[in-house]
Structure formats: structure tokens, C-alpha cells
């Protein structure tokens, strides 16, 4: 019996893109966290919020949690993202 290997990547077909512009500073910024709802995200986001506020001067941190960890974020969550300067998503078990 022969062993067959399949390559699931599409690297040969990857399209070029330009990354989003990076802010010069995060002082006064609003950050949003999107959690998958698993227990492991809680401690991570608490610690990350403290670091962002203390070291980078982030003014506001908002948190949203998806209702289903394996599904995309709900439209209401995505609507909130428009008011944030940037978003961080997280998962944890």
C-alpha cells in the first residue's frame, strides 16, 4: 500500500497584501477584546489589560464574548469593533 501525502496549504496561490497601518502610539486608545468564551481567556485578558494600561497608556478596554466558541463573532460584536482603535481576539481552554 502506498502512502500519499496531501498538502493543504495554498501558499503558491497566496495573494500579496498590504498590512494595516500601525498607530504611532496607543496612549488614549480604546482596545476591544473578543473572547471565545472558554475559561482560559479570563486570566489572559485581565493580565493583558493591565499591561496595556500601565505600559502603553491605553485608556479604555472593552470586552465581548462570543456565544459559541467555534463560530464567528456575532454581528452585534462586529458592529462594536468599528468604535475600537484595535481588537485582540483570544481563545483558551
Structural features, described:
The longest helix has 17 residues, at 40-56. A three-stranded parallel β-sheet has the order 2-1-3, with helices on one face. The protein is an alpha/beta fold. The protein is built from two helices and three strands. Helix 1 links the parallel strand 1 (30-35) and strand 2 (60-65). It is 26% helix and 18% strand. The model has no long low-confidence stretch (mean pLDDT 89). The radius of gyration is 18 Å and the shape is extended. It has helices at residues 40-56, 75-81; strands at residues 30-35, 60-65, 86-90.
Structural class: alpha/beta
Rg: 18 Å
Determine the mean pLDDT: 89
The count of strands amounts to 3
Report the sheet-strand fraction: 15-25%
Taking the alpha carbons of the first and last residues, their distance comes to 39 Å
Low-confidence stretches: none
Outline: extended
- DSSP helical segment count: 2
The strand order across the widest sheet is 2-1-3
Note the run of SSEs as H and E. Answer: EHEHE
Largest sheet: 3 strands, parallel
Helix content: 25-40%
Amino acid at each position: 500500500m502506498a502512502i500519499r501525502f496531501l498538502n493543504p496549504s495554498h501558499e503558491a496561490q497566496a495573494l500579496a497584501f498590504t498590512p494595516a497601518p500601525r498607530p504611532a502610539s496607543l496612549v488614549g486608545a480604546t482596545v476591544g477584546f473578543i473572547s471565545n468564551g472558554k475559561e482560559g481567556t479570563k486570566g489572559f485578558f485581565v493580565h493583558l489589560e493591565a499591561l496595556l494600561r500601565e505600559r502603553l497608556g491605553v485608556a479604555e478596554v472593552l470586552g465581548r464574548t462570543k456565544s459559541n466558541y467555534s463560530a464567528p463573532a456575532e454581528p452585534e460584536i462586529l458592529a462594536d469593533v468599528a468604535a475600537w482603535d484595535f481588537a485582540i481576539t483570544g481563545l483558551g481552554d
